[in-house]
Specification:
Elements lengths: L2 E7 L6 H14 L4 E4 L2 E2 L12 H9 L6 H4 L2 E2 L2 H8 L5 H16 L4 E5 L14 H8 L2 E6 L6 H12 L3 E9 L1 H17 L4 E6 L2 H4 L1 E2 H8 L2 E2 L8 E2 L1 E4 L4 H8 L5 E6 L3 H7 L5 E7 L6 H10 L3 E3 L4 H14 L5 H14 L2 H5 L6 H7 L1
Parallel strand pairs: 1-5, 1-6, 2-5, 3-4, 6-7, 7-8, 12-13, 13-14, 14-15
Antiparallel strand pairs: 9-11, 10-15
Helix pairs in contact: 1-15, 10-14, 11-12
Length: about 375
């Protein structure tokens, strides 16, 4: 009988894809035949049309799956689809049946099915396909991923665990800062387990998995790189420059691993930003080329300067989408997450009761 684990999260950008695929890889290493599915395609390349989610495409490659994309991703959960559903043009019962049929086809002859949730726990509610509802449909156990920054985050986690109910296999805290390890392990984990919420593991934050490189941003924004500075620095946050030079310097000195997005016609702010060690690159908007003195100083400081033709608001939205979607999701990301799960999570509690079928054992030989 196939065991199914649905990987979901309390919020977006918690590392679901990396965890789901890493878990699948760990299962394959144990000789299990493993399938994958993402019922709701949410990480789309376009907002319109029958566009594809990038996560199932990566899964198909890394797990050597021969399934068709329409099976791996039966519902393209695009803004167009959502608007259509709200207008009553999508039948939830028909969609559920379509999703169930795809799942049963993919799960045939598999020891384990790893199902990736979409967006966050509640995504899909308008067509009765939230992650808890999908878990019920597939008779799946649920691995709930959460971040942890402060004690108040436990409120959201408990609410999510309550939504999942008895199907909860456990919670995995991902991308945890070093400073938060002790309060988690000393206070939060015992508290949760005392409330009947098992904690599978606490995975430390890895810088390479948390941000995107300047090179990634430049490619996504179709930017002209005006300097010869290295573009391999990691960026985790964006600052919008619309303030005076003096107040900007005070603010910029308190930030780290940031990119400043400002108009190309603000050389005063650009010059100030180059004095802040936490600013890893400048993104200049509106197609205005900065003065040569700014480019020269950026070269001297080793700070890349990116020039884009779009306005500042558009640049901010696209840049933040790069960080949110995580352009670093690739084979290397999944392999690093596999190592982290092996070292910091109780994988046995998730996979320990899955027995490889004779057929899958023969396939491994």
């Amino acid at each position: 009988m196939t065991k199914t684990i649905l990987v979901t999260a309390t919020e977006e950008s918690t590392g679901k894809t990396a965890v789901a695929l890493a878990l699948a890889r760990l299962a394959k290493e144990r000789g299990l035949s493993v399938g994958y599915m993402k019922p709701k395609g949410t990480r789309l390349q376009s907002n319109v049309g029958k566009t594809l989610d990038e996560d199932p495409m990566l899964a198909r490659e890394l797990l050597d799956l021969d399934a068709e994309m329409h099976e791996l991703e039966p519902v393209v959960y695009s803004p167009t689809f959502i608007e259509s559903a709200i207008r009553g043009r999508e039948d939830p019962d028909e969609l559920r049946e379509q999703v169930r049929e795809s799942f049963e086809s993919l799960a045939a002859d598999k020891d384990l099915m790893v199902v990736e949730g979409g967006g966050e726990l509640t995504t899909g509610g308008i067509v009765d396909l939230t992650d808890p509802e999908v878990a019920d449909l597939f008779d799946a156990e649920v691995l709930l991923i959460s971040k942890y920054g402060q004690a108040g985050d436990v409120d959201d986690l408990l609410a999510a665990a309550n939504d999942v109910g008895d199907r909860l296999a456990g919670v995995l805290f991902n991308a945890v800062e070093n400073a938060n390890f002790d309060p988690l392990e000393t206070d939060v984990v015992p508290f949760l387990e005392g409330r009947g919420v098992p904690v599978i593991g606490v995975v430390p934050r890895e810088r390479d998995l948390a941000g995107v490189t300047v090179e990634d941003i430049a490619a996504e924004l179709n930017a002209d790189v005006l300097t010869n500075a290295d573009t391999d620095a990691f960026v985790e946050r964006f600052l919008v420059g619309a303030m005076s030079g003096d107040s900007a310097l005070r603010h910029l000195r308190r930030t780290k691993d940031a990119a400043l997005i400002t108009g190309g016609d603000r050389p005063d702010l650009q010059t100030v930003a180059l004095e802040a060690p936490g600013v890893k690159c400048l993104i200049l908007t509106g197609g205005f080329r900065p003065p040569g003195a700014v480019v020269g100083k950026a070269e001297e400081k080793g700070v890349p300067v990116l020039l884009v033709q779009t306005d500042t608001l558009t640049a901010v939205e696209r840049a933040e989408d790069v960080v949110r979607s995580g352009r670093t999701r690739n084979a290397e990301t999944v392999e690093r997450m596999r190592e982290l799960l092996h070292d910091h999570a109780d994988v046995d509690s998730l996979l320990g009761d899955v027995a490889a079928t004779e057929e899958s054992e023969e396939n491994e030989e």
